[in-house]
Write a structure and sequence with these properties.
Blueprint: H1 5-17, H2 20-27, H3 31-45, E1 50-51, E2 58-59, H4 61-89, E3 94-100, H5 105-117, E4 123-129, H6 133-139, E5 145-148, E6 157-171, H7 186-189, E7 194-197, E8 216-219, H8 222-230, E9 235-239, H9 240-249, E10 253-254, E11 263-272, H10 279-290
Parallel strand pairs: 3-4, 3-5, 7-8
Antiparallel strand pairs: 1-2, 5-11, 6-9, 6-10, 6-11
């Protein structure tokens, strides 16, 4: 048994609008055309779908069940029509963006929210990765764009600068058994637990700031790392934007000195050089470049 989308749309509109005339106006059809479409449905099914005994047209129990399924078909048809339009215009239906662990997340999410609000037909697939994870996803073409730091000498990447991230070594007051001075050495810190983040890359690369042979706690993200350090369970390098408040209030202290220094990394939006991109991806690239 075959039903046309026109017939299903007519039934849906009659119920939504409460009358054949109102449904006809909504669909830009004539009253007889809408009436005939619903009548054809009822005759093909052999059951009454509409209760016409009241002033406002309603559904019979059979009509309720049928309309629920019809609504699903209409939604899928609308989605298919949108997809066809996007494909004909060359627009992407999906974009994959990976955000790295050092990124000021709230600001980046605000930017992405504004952009995709203006591009509602493109679905955002957003992933959060750590250390080498963003690079690995991009190089494997599992991401269209990453927001992270990169090796700018790597010719495989092209990028736009978004800002800088400052990293500094911190711990909670009283965590060290000795006084914190500018002469604190890696050898002295080897006795203390270092909180480090687990690389999400399938083939992890280099470790950052890790003291070899020191005891360690391994965590999945910067926020968990911050919580452990604040609780006096270890020390580690943290993005300044995540610990500024704790440093001001004395919950954390800096371990900066001759051997432990703060460092800065360029935060960028990066994509593979020379890889074809669609109009929405190009628009996102331009938007991020202009919003820095």
């Amino acid at each position: 048994m075959v039903f046309s989308l026109h017939e299903l749309a007519c039934l849906d509109a009659v119920i939504a609008e409460g009358s054949f005339q109102a449904a006809a106006e909504k669909l830009h059809r004539t009253h007889p055309a809408v009436h005939a479409a619903v009548k054809n449905l009822e005759q093909r099914l052999g059951v009454a779908l509409l209760d016409r005994s009241q002033y406002r047209v309603g559904l019979t129990p059979a009509g309720e069940a049928f309309r629920r399924q019809a609504a699903t078909v209409l939604r899928e048809a609308a989605a298919l029509e949108t997809l066809g339009l996007q494909l004909s215009q060359g627009e992407e239906t999906d974009l994959r963006v990976v955000v790295g662990d050092l990124t000021p997340t709230e600001e980046v999410l605000r930017r992405l929210k504004r952009f995709f609000k203006a591009h509602p037909k493109t679905r955002l697939h957003l992933h959060f990765e750590v250390i080498g994870g963003p690079w690995e996803r991009l190089l494997a073409e599992e991401a269209d764009l990453i927001i992270h730091h990169i090796d700018k000498s790597d010719a495989r990447f092209e990028w736009v600068d978004l800002g800088t991230v400052t990293l500094l070594p911190v711990t909670a007051p009283g965590f060290l058994a000795e006084a914190v001075t500018r002469d604190l050495t890696p050898g002295q810190m080897r006795a203390y637990v270092q909180v480090i983040i687990r690389d999400t890359a399938r083939q992890p690369g280099r470790d950052y700031f890790v003291i070899k042979d020191a005891p360690s706690w391994t965590v999945a993200d910067q926020h968990t790392k911050q919580a452990l350090i604040v609780q006096g369970m270890g020390w580690g390098h943290m993005p300044l934007h995540l610990v500024e408040k704790e440093l001001r209030t004395g919950k954390l202290i800096s371990l900066e000195g001759r051997h432990f220094k703060r460092s800065k990394l360029d935060l960028v939006a990066a994509r593979l050089r020379g890889r074809p991109v669609g109009p929405v991806a190009r628009a996102l690239w331009s938007y991020l470049a202009e919003a820095k």
